[in-house]
Amino acid sequence: MIIAVDGPAASGKGTLAAALARHYGLPHLDTGLLYRAVGRAIEAYSDAPDFEARAIAAAGAVDTGHLDPAILSAQPYGELASRVAVIGAVRQALFDFQRQFALQPGGAVLDGRDIGTKICPEADVKLFIDADSKARMERRARQYEARGLTVNRYELYHQIEARDARDRANPNGGFFPAPDAHLLDTTRLDIEAAFRAAVALVDGAMARKAGPSGAS
Ligand code: CDP
Ligand code: CDP
């Protein structure tokens, strides 16, 4: 079973994808970490002539075995990630690893922006997680505050809006729900309620796939 979980920044897609992976006993890949790792590595390629060349060199050398969320979840890496993510050659360099992860025997859960549209259009279940910008800003603010950081909510709101705008305008297709994705708006759902709603969608989709003969 392959589950694709897409959605904008701080929609809760990572938390949900991890919970679904535990529930169904599947491996999970947070694909945002790949782009964040490229953003973080860029400064090591200062010899390359410009930002794009540095990003492409960094993408070719990403160490997929050492993607540390504790380091990569820092705000500046999210910004850098969305800047490297508009470069086609960067997306290409990260494609095979994501695709192979999705197609491993037994299945997988991947979360990101383009899982249901580009990385694994044949996924068994596609979820598109959303929440309004204010709710997403508040969630991210609390995440940072839990780490002891001081948050300017006004600035954070604008950062989230700016990142959404860049992601939507990505010349490599922009990020939208796949036509066959199930939309899940979690603005008014806590983590547990969002998880229950997602499990119902996954179970329903799998039951439909199994067809009448799969029903007991
Ligand atoms: O957790 P959050 O949504 O804030 O960020 P993320 O999922 O770690 O992604 C950071 C950035 O990487 C996004 O804003 C996208 O620009 C880019 N990204 C992408 O282009 N494709 C993906 N599959 C995942 C992330
Ligand atoms: O992966 P993404 O950036 O979409 O979001 P996340 O890191 O999974 O979630 C951002 C924060 O919102 C986390 O601290 C979650 O615990 C919280 N969250 C929430 O409060 N309510 C939800 N329904 C989902 C997530």
UniProtKB/TrEMBL annotation:
InterPro entries on file: Cytidylate_kin, Cytidylate_kinase_dom, P-loop_NTPase
Assigned EC number: 2.7.4.25
One Gene Ontology cellular component annotation held by this UniProt entry: cytoplasm
The UniProt record lists the keyword ATP-binding: yes
Listed GO biological process terms: pyrimidine nucleotide metabolic process
One matching Pfam family: Cytidylate_kin
Cellular localisation: Cytoplasm
GO molecular function list: ATP binding; CMP kinase activity; dCMP kinase activity
Top-level class of the enzyme under EC nomenclature: transferase
Catalytic activity, as annotated: dCMP + ATP = dCDP + ADP; CMP + ATP = CDP + ADP
Keywords from the named record: ATP-binding, Cytoplasm, Kinase, Nucleotide-binding, Transferase
Sites where the protein binds ATP: G7, P8, A9, A10, S11, G12, K13, G14, T15
Domain Cytidylate kinase: 3-195
Family according to the record: Belongs to the cytidylate kinase family. Type 1 subfamily.
Protein name: Cytidylate kinase
